[in-house]
Structures are given as structure tokens and as C-alpha cells.
User: Fold this.
Amino acid sequence: MRALRRVAIAGSAVALVVGIASPASAEPRPRKDEWWFPAWEIENAVWPISRGAGITVGVLDSGVNPHLPELAGVVLKGADTAGGKSDGRKDLDVKEDGHGTTMAIMIAGQGGGSSGFAGIAPQAKILPVHVMSIDVLGPDRVDSDKAIADGIRFAVGKGAKVLNLSFGAGAPGTPDQCSRDVRDAVAYAIQHDVVTVAAAGDTGNTNNFAEAPASCPGVLAVGGVGSDLRPWKGTQRQPYVAVAAPASGSVAIGKTGTVYSDAQGTSASAALVSGAVALIRARNPHMSGRTVVQRLLATALPIYKPVPDEATGYGAIRIARAMDPAKYPVPADGPNPVYERFDRVQGAANDVNTIPAAETRRSGGGPSPFVYGAVGGVAVLVGGLALVWFRSRRSSPR
Assistant:
């Protein structure tokens, strides 16, 4: 377990002692430190329209523990493409206390349990796929790129409409910064109208290397920001970063239900964007994946100029705007660099180089993706800044 990492929250933040949460109900209530709920107006503007019903989210990770109250009735039978001999419904994480479980709860948490954590798309279903070769020892271990590629194809075949990949490994300067196996699997997902979301990486304040699968053509790469709209210090600064979402200021829930305070990393950012895609697709069942991604970019709140910038892309996503094409129209020929790059690479597929398989790391590239702190009873309640995070410029977008 990693030592406690304190996260400095800007603005009028106050400390709040969080007690044992009440049992899950039909309408989960977010924790006080899930500051993105008021920032995105999820309870007031998003949930009355969509909670993700009918959408399956493929969580490609360390597996998911379906027995926690926070995930009651949410987790489907999945698969293990890394050689771990599971059906995805067991968190095999050997380095952290349940990375895949944490991501699933952030997406579709039901409240209750020891944490009371609510996901932003509580009516979505989680399809767990264990793809982490680092969790498997012995001759059954599968090459990491193959495990990820096979996991993508499995999830697509089982009807997932969005894939969450909150991990990463080095992607040297090849033309498309992606192995052939994973690149082809992402193409397969796109051909089946599935959106692939990945963490941008957590070493932006150190080596800042490009990391796959976020760097793969056609993948929606998500950078991290804090409640003050500033880039999280570790988020990767790379041209492939498309949008940004919360990366700090909350907690992580281990595979046994243990609550860890002050978690941070772009793993969380990717999970929240995957939940956002589920909300948008549930509300707009006939909207293509290309259009979903285009709308997320077009309706985002820019953080730096010129747009896009390498830390936050087109800016912090605004779910209520992205899911409402009538109120917030986006031109059909508007920018969509995620898919435009994919189309260019597909057109030049014969010239694409490959990279050797690299050992997968969770959390977009740092030593720990969504870094866990010590067990916490004390969480952070973000005040003023969080409340206006994405409401700013409602009538006059930047």
C-alpha cells in the first residue's frame, strides 16, 4: 500500500469526517467528497434525464469484486484474457487493493457498503475483463498487448458500448504510438460503434512519456484536473490528450471494501468519462460513438488557449451539455481529432510501425494509477470552486 499522499484542494474547502454510510437505496446519494456531482450538476441536471440504463461499460482492468454492496446487482459475467483463469468477477490485483473494483464503483457505484460511494451512471452495467498480465505468474501469463486486444474484442462482442482502460505503458515514437494488436482491436471497437476511453498517464511531472493505449488512434484520452480547473500535477502533457476530468480530491475503494483517502490519478479521470459516455448513450441511443466523442470535445469547458492544449485537450467535459444536442447543437463537420487521427492511420495502415509489448501499468503510466493513501475516515468537501466548476459560462461558452 502506498503512503498517504495529501492533495491540496484550492478554494473554500473544508474538512468533513465521513462516518459509515447507510445501506444502498434505489437512489444513491454521492459522498460529500465526490465534488464532481455538484460541479457537473449530476443530481439536478443529468440524473433526471439519464442514469445510464441499458448501457454496458466494459472495464478492462484487474477484474472486479461484485460482492461489495457498492456494486450490488451491477457486475455481469466477464472474462480473463491475461491467463488468470477467472470470469472477470474476481479482482486479481497483486500490487494495489483492487484497482478494477475502484474504477467500476466510480462508474456505476450504488452507494452503501463501507464507503457509500455513488457512481455517476448507477443504472449502467459493468462487464469486467481481467487484462493485467502483471497479475499473473507462471506459464499461463499472456502477452500484455494480446491480453488487452483480446479483452477489447470480448467486451465488444458482449455488447459493451464504452470501454474503460485506466492503465498505460510506454509508447515510443512510432507513427501511431500503439502496438499492432491493440491498434487493430481499437479499430474493431470503432467498427462496432464502441467508444474506447483511456487514462492519459500519471507521469506528466516527471518523464512525461507518451503512453498507450491512450496514445492509440481512435482512443479518447483523458487528462486530469482538480476542482480549481488546473491540470493535476501528474497528468500527461501530450498531443493525444482530448479532454479532462477530475483526478484528485476523493477516495478509492479497495476490493474488500476498504476506503483509502486522498486518491489521485488519471485512472479516475478516465472512469468518470466512461461513465459520462454511458449517460450520453443511454439518453441518445441512436447517437453514434463518433458523435458522442465529438460532442464531448465541442461542449467541454476550455482551460487554456489555444485549444486544444496538451494537458487538458479541449477542456473539462460538461455532461449535461454533451447529452443535449437540441439545446447545445454541434455542427456535423465540427472538429473530432480523435476519429480524424484514426481515419488517417487506417488509411495508411501499411506504413504503421509496431512497438514491442510493454508491461502494463495501471493509472495511465505512473507507478500507481489512482494512488491510494492511508485508510481514511477524513475526506474533503470541496466548496465554492467545485460548485461552479462546469456551470461557468453557461450562456456564453469559452
Q: What stands out?
A: Residues 1-25, 350-359, 364-388, 390-398 have pLDDT under 50 and may be disordered. Residues 14-19+27-387 form a domain with the Rossmann fold fold (CATH 3.40.50.200).
